[in-house]
Design a protein that fits this description.
The protein is mainly β. The protein has two domains: 152 residues, Thrombin, subunit H (Beta Barrel); 112 residues, Trypsin-like serine proteases (Thrombin, subunit H). The protein is built from three helices and 16 strands. Strands 11-12-13-16-15-14 form a six-stranded antiparallel barrel. Strand 2 and strand 3 form a beta hairpin. It is globular. 52% of the residues are buried. It comes from Streptomyces coryli.
């Protein structure tokens, strides 16, 4: 099903741009009108380049979690991580465990991804996925549709928390709790790119702490990955080879000039620790 994407948040670009000069812009979410390309002068180099902008995908970020939310001892037990990290050919088993906890999020004319993150069945997604909506519809991996309330949103971190009206019995995913991802670690991105629910792509961590700057001001630390991420993946989980969530898929770099850009192997995720921090504040505020 073809759906339009939500409004696009402020443009972002890497703080440490590549030495090459790819022309591009942040692709709008699926179905949104294109934005004009923009140019900028960066760094000690005096060359004028067109910024490789971060594309907000209708989803967002990666990192390691130590939040108290996952320690809630009521509700559904979380999906246990694998005892040891499998090789790449074993990632299919990881995907099979993760998929049932991932949902599509339909908000007005927009569409993105979310995932169950606590024992009460609440769903984590991107703020730009839900936009200004107070109510959204979730679609489970099994095709069940459930109405959900938007408990709140943290626009600064691009995080939103959803409370389903009905208990779908979905198990929360387990957040990674210690250390940080390393360059070369295997990862899986799960989501609904372009409305294609249950899509799984695999890659590696390209950079564990990429600093990106937003056109609206400020900087953000994000996990960079080459796992294919496209509009509609926003809000979906980026998991490690044990099935633990390290971040929320949020943005991509794009070479597109006028239309909507797709994956070129440079995606970004909000660190899970930051996402859980925001989620806890949202829940405490209700």
């Amino acid at each position: 099903m073809t759906v339009a994407g939500p409004p696009v948040p402020p443009v972002a670009r890497p703080s440490d741009p590549p030495s090459a000069s790819p022309n591009g812009q942040r692709p709008a979410p699926y179905g949104a009108p294109p934005a004009p390309p923009r140019t900028t002068t960066t760094g000690p180099r005096t060359a004028l380049i067109t910024a490789v902008a971060l594309a907000v995908l209708g989803g967002a970020g990666a990192g390691y979690a130590a939040g108290a939310l996952a320690d809630d001892d009521s509700g559904t037990d979380p999906v246990p991580p694998a005892a040891a990290a499998p090789q790449r050919e074993g990632l299919g088993a990881v995907a099979a465990r993760v998929l049932p906890s991932v949902v599509s999020v339909e908000a007005g004319s927009g569409q993105g991804t979310g995932f169950v993150f606590d024992r009460r069945g609440r769903v984590l997604t991107n703020a730009h996925v839900v936009g200004e909506s107070d109510r959204v519809e979730l679609v489970t991996d099994g095709g069940r549709r459930i109405e959900a309330e938007v408990l709140g949103r943290d626009r600064g971190r691009d995080v939103a928390v959803l409370e389903p009206d009905d208990d779908a019995g979905l198990r929360p995913l387990t957040p990674a709790r210690s250390g940080r991802p390393a360059v070369g670690d295997s990862v899986i991105a799960v989501g609904s790119p372009l409305g294609l629910t249950g899509t799984v792509t695999a890659g590696i961590v390209s950079a564990p702490d990429r600093q990106v700057s937003l056109s609206s001001g400020g900087r953000r630390s994000a996990i960079q990955t080459d796992a294919s991420i496209n509009p509609g993946n926003s809000g979906g989980p980026l998991v490690d080879a044990r099935g633990r969530v390290i971040g929320i898929n949020t943005a991509i770099a794009s070479l597109a000039r006028g239309g909507q850009g797709g994956s070129i192997g440079i995606g970004f995720a909000i660190p899970m620790a930051e996402a859980l921090d925001s989620a806890e504040s949202i829940i405490e505020g209700n």
